[in-house]
Amino acid sequence: MSATLGTFLKLLNPELSIKIFERLDAPAQESSNPWNNAGTGHAALCELNYMPDTSDGSLPNAQKAIAINEQFQLSRQFWAHLVEVGILKNPSSFITSTPHMTFVRGEKDCDYLKRRYLALKNQPLFAGMEFSQDPEVIRQWAPLLIEGRDQNETIAATTIQTGTDVNFGEITRQLIDHLVSQGAEVDYNSEVRGLKKSKDGWLVSTGSVVTKARFVFVGAGGWALKLLQKAGIPEAKGYGTFPVGGQWLRCDDPEIVARHSAKVYSQASVGAPPMSVPHLDARMVDGQPSLLFGPYATSNPKFLKHGSILDLPKSIRPSNVIPYLAVAVSNFPLIKYLVGELAKGKKRKFESLLEFMPTANAKDWQLLNAGQRAQIIKKDKAKGGILQFGTEIITSADGSIAALLGASPGASTAVNAMLEVLERSFPEQFPIWKSKLSKIMPWYGKSLNSDAKAAAKSLAETAKTLQLK
């Protein structure tokens, strides 16, 4: 998020002075690191949580799925522009064509998936989506899903070829390298410990060093809440964070990896948070293909993978005690789910993989820790507090400080999120910037999905620049 915002600002006003503080010794070592996330270019092509089922058997509402896809198209357009002007190098280093599939089992889920397909197949941004309940057709899409499976099992799948695998860590590193080449400063091993309002901006403290800034963006993942609390802005009061960790099973065996080239998502377990939807993913990191399966949710009080076990208790304030308690009381299924996940060893976690890939062998897979996700807890008049599975931008009244809280869909829609930051925090400049932004992203501010020709053109043009199929 920070690298994306910095890049926008330098493109829009090259004279701006930018300084980046990173508490670790390199960029993209937390949620953006390719092994800490699924690398899915989240466009709602295969993720069921963006399009929940209906209670009456009607077609599910596609509006949220379309909105997520529209946001990802902005990211594709932005990245394509950055490739054209030489800011991002070698598209294959950070994005590859990877079909997106959804795979479900049982009559109920198969019926839902078919209705989801019917609701999406004629939407321009979902053009080319296919549905099948024929095991032999699904075998052609992803053979490892079918081999060894009971032929009498009721299954269904959708597939679409416009999906992508994205190395967000590589994008981050390249963007930061460019910012440095344009005069931006990066202080590594530098933890922000204080944010104090001054007459003309903020005093940013990293121990003994204090930096003055007219504008501050807090792109600190799970630590964003902690820094907002230090800033003391009223807009952050009442917010809390519910941390959820994760683990993956990873396979690097060339013979196995070569036989699966898609990202395959399924239904979440009852009570599971959205980031724990099981999926079997083809990954491409630093030119090397791998498979990931998971994630398996874990629970600890850290707000970051490299955080502290005191992060959660230290975030409690009088203003967010009630939201924390309300969420604890009203989310018993989630707590029960997390406790159950914690009790699983590698053997039981491997059993979940067998539901996707019946011929999997435990010796071919290693268990790795994924990134930490910090879900939003916020005030709610009716319930006292709610747990929000999404992202949210918080901006001070004067626009001088902004932050991003939450996780899903995260980095995939960083471009859309940072455009919102620009609009909120630079209200005087933004109307002037919009014309330049429209040149960078030709369909910015327009609905691609409402224009089939425009959608096809945008997908084709960005695919060509980003070297996608």
Automatic annotation (TrEMBL):
It catalyses: (S)-malate + a quinone = a quinol + oxaloacetate. Pfam families: Mqo. InterPro entries: FAD/NAD-bd_sf, MQO. SUPFAM superfamilies: FAD/NAD(P)-binding domain (SSF51905). Its EC number is 1.1.5.4. GO terms for biological process: tricarboxylic acid cycle. It comes from Candidatus Rhodoluna planktonica. The lineage of its organism: Bacteria, Bacillati, Actinomycetota, Actinomycetes, Micrococcales. Pathway: Carbohydrate metabolism; tricarboxylic acid cycle; oxaloacetate from (S)-malate (quinone route): step 1/1. It comes from the Bacteria. It is an enzyme of class 1 (oxidoreductase). This is Probable malate:quinone oxidoreductase. Gene3D superfamilies: D-Amino Acid Oxidase, subunit A, domain 2, FAD/NAD(P)-binding domain. Its cofactor is FAD. Keywords: FAD, Flavoprotein, Oxidoreductase, Tricarboxylic acid cycle. GO terms for molecular function: (S)-2-hydroxyglutarate dehydrogenase activity; L-malate dehydrogenase (quinone) activity. Belongs to the MQO family.
